[in-house]
Amino acid sequence: MKKLGISLIAIMIFIPKLFAQNEPNPVTTAAPFLLIVPDARAGGMGDVGVATSADENSQHHNPSQYAFLESQYTLGINYTPWMRELVNDVFLGGVTFANRINERSAWAASMKYFTLGEIQLTDIEGNPLGIEKPNEFSLDGTYALKLNETFSMGVTMRYIRSDFALKVDNSILNTVNTFSVDISGYYQSIPKKYENFDGRWRGGFNFSNLGPKVTYSDGGKENFIPSNMKLGGGFDFILNDLNTISTTVEFTKLLVPSPPLRDGQGNIIEGKDDDVPFFTGVFQSFGDAPDGFGEEMKEFTWGIGAEYIYANTFALRTGYFHESEFKGARQFVTMGLGFKFKSSRMDISYLFNSSEVNNPLENTLRFSLAFDFGDLYKIN
Please, what sign has the CA dihedral across residues 201, 319, 34, 38? Predict the structure, then answer.
């Protein structure tokens, strides 16, 4: 149990947005756990997933992929330790169930749970005030439909709960309850014969967590939830019946306004006012960075991933993720393994930090399990 004060939670929620123009200017949001990649397959490929082949964890990356599932029913379970070098009871967990209804459509439901473990609260003199277990979770439901043989779209509804409220006198923190919507699309071509191999193109997009602003205190400043855009593409080198190599590239951007440059009195010097409705903020996010177009481009992250599959039973993965030093400085290399048995799969991934900024997943193994049931569907 960690002996941390009330200030810890406040710091995690309310991150100051004052900065000088030559200093980092990250975009911050409420409920950032929604952006954490939950599964070890994507975790082994640089966190990419919007344009990879469909699996049980498409709910996070691109829910429209569910219309391309091979199995009639799929159950997925994920576990990701968080800040394992510092604590042992902070983690992200999740479960997903998907049902391929017929050749054209599918539905899925999932839950994601993030806990900060047990926190010992103390007053200014160090006297104990009790133990809190702050946590966040989301519940999702998706419907995906093939519009033709190679393209599908999906719609997702999400309930979000962020509970940092403290059961102490004069606490200013409240529990947040809100909702959001995802709109996604996925393209997977019919395999085409090339000179020495067959090839298949993939592409996808996902506009996720589109929803209203929230506040953690009565009358407090409203915060954006992490509305996000993912775009990606990939290609499968189908070498023969036993060997396939898949490559994927992905770009993401928060659809949240950039914090403007302010003076000591809070007046805006450069940039635009970020206190706008969430829908306005989605469009404003493409052209409001204080340092202009150059800074706007730095708000895009990118990742590349590769996956080698042998006999549809063993997978070897690697990838790289990059975020500008000006916007968070997450940069890391990943590796992963996958094993498929008769009706189950297990994935493992590991992250190598390549940034000067510490990563909460350093020296941590991530695990995913999946179970397939029912009939099999033909995938183009």
Answer: positive
Judge whether 224 and 213 are in contact, CB under 8 Å.
yes
Distance, in Å, from the CA atom of 348 to the CA atom of 366, rounded to the nearest integer, reads 6
Residue 327 has which token pair? Answer: 């916007």
Measured CA to CA, the distance from residue 80 to residue 89 in angstroms comes to 11
Q: How far, CA to CA in Å, does 365 sit from each of 15, 39, 314, 346?
A: 29, 11, 18, 13
pLDDT digits (tens, 9 = 90+) for 148-186: 999 999 999 999 999 887 666 666 778 899 999 999 999
Measured distance CA(260)–CA(269) in Å, rounded: 7
Question: What CATH fold (topology level) applies to the domain 6-18+29-375?
Answer: Porin (2.40.160)
Report the 10 Å Cβ neighbour count for 177.
11
pTM assigned to the model: 0.89
Give the C-alpha separation, 253 to 260, whole Å.
17
| Residue 251 β-bridge partners | 231, 302
SS3 for 233-298, per residue?
EEEEEECCCCEEEEEEEEEEEECCCCCCEECCCCCEEECCCCCCCHHHHHHHCCCCCCCCHHHHHH
DSSP β-bridge partners for residue 34: none
Burial profile 291-310: b = 16 or more Cβ within 10 angstroms, e = fewer: beeebbebbbbbbbbbbbbe
Boundaries of every domain in the chain: 6-18+29-375
pLDDT at 125 over 80: no
**Torsion angle (degrees, nearest 10) of CA 35, 326, 336, 231:** 60
Nearest to 180 by CA among 55, 279, 38: 279
Whether the Cβ atoms of residue 59 and residue 96 lie closer than 8 Å to each other: yes
- The SS3 of residue 110 is strand
Q: How many helices (H) and strands (E) does the chain have?
A: 5, 19
Please calculate the CA angle 205-209-212 and round it to the nearest 5 degrees.
140
